[in-house]
Amino acid sequence: MLVTTHIIASGIVALVLYPFIGIMSLWVIIGGVLIDSDHYLFSIMRFKSFSLKKSYWWHRNHGMTPDYERDILHIAHTVEIFVVTAIVGLIWETAFWVLQGMILHILMDFINLFKRNHVDARAISLVGWLKRRNLL
Predict the structure, then answer these.
(1) How far apart are CA 26 and CA 12, in angstroms?
(2) CB-based burial, 83-120: b 16+ in 10 Å, e otherwise
(3) For residue 50, how many other CB atoms are within 10 A of its CB?
(4) How many angstroms separate the CA atoms of 7 and 110, rounded?
(5) How far is CA 85 from the centre of its chain?
(6) Are 28 and 9 in contact (CB under 8 A)?
(7) Exposed e or buried b for every residue in 6-44, given b needs 16+ CB within 10 A?
(8) Nearest to 94 by CA among 15, 44, 21
(9) What is the model's pTM?
(10) What's the number of domains the chain is made of?
(11) Residue 41: which domain range?
């Protein structure tokens, strides 16, 4: 899904929340957009390249063919990161609002993956991913 789509969706939610939580609503945008920074980390690890442009286009084109790569690990999109953020959010309000943006983001991603019938493109759990590779 395009970064601009996540920015717009997170921005709309932040605007709706602003009258109730004020400036804290900006954290929804941050959580909804910066979660995708793990795509760049993936590219650095996989391709040994710091090119943001190459990373963007690889991820943009990924899944456009029937033989797309499955079980890609995007660490910030795993259930473990969501659980840690939720626990921290119980004691730190900022993390709670970041989590709301992350939830919006992941829901949008999964809708997109379901529409393409590519739900297997991304690892949902870090622990599961490590087990499938006999690393745990």
Answers:
(1) 11
(2) eebeeebeeeeebbbbbbbbbbbbebbeeebeeeeeee
(3) 10
(4) 17
(5) 13
(6) no
(7) beebbbebbeebeeebeebbbbbbbbbbbbbebbbebbe
(8) 21
(9) 0.91
(10) 1
(11) 3-132
Which pair of structure tokens corresponds to residue 55? 């990373």
Q: Which amino acid is at 117?
A: N
Residue 22: closest CA among 114, 87, 94: 94
Q: Is the distance from CB of 54 to CB of 43 less than 8 angstroms?
A: yes
- In one-letter notation, the amino acid at residue 87 is I
Question: Letter for the amino acid at 94?
Answer: T
Residue-level pLDDT, tens digit, the chain, 136 residues: 788 999 999 999 999 999 999 999 999 999 999 999 999 999 999 999 999 999 988 888 887 777 788 999 999 999 999 999 999 999 999 999 999 999 999 999 999 889 988 889 999 999 999 999 999 8
- Which ranges constitute the DSSP H helices of 22-51? 26-34, 37-47
Beta strands in 5-135 (DSSP E): none
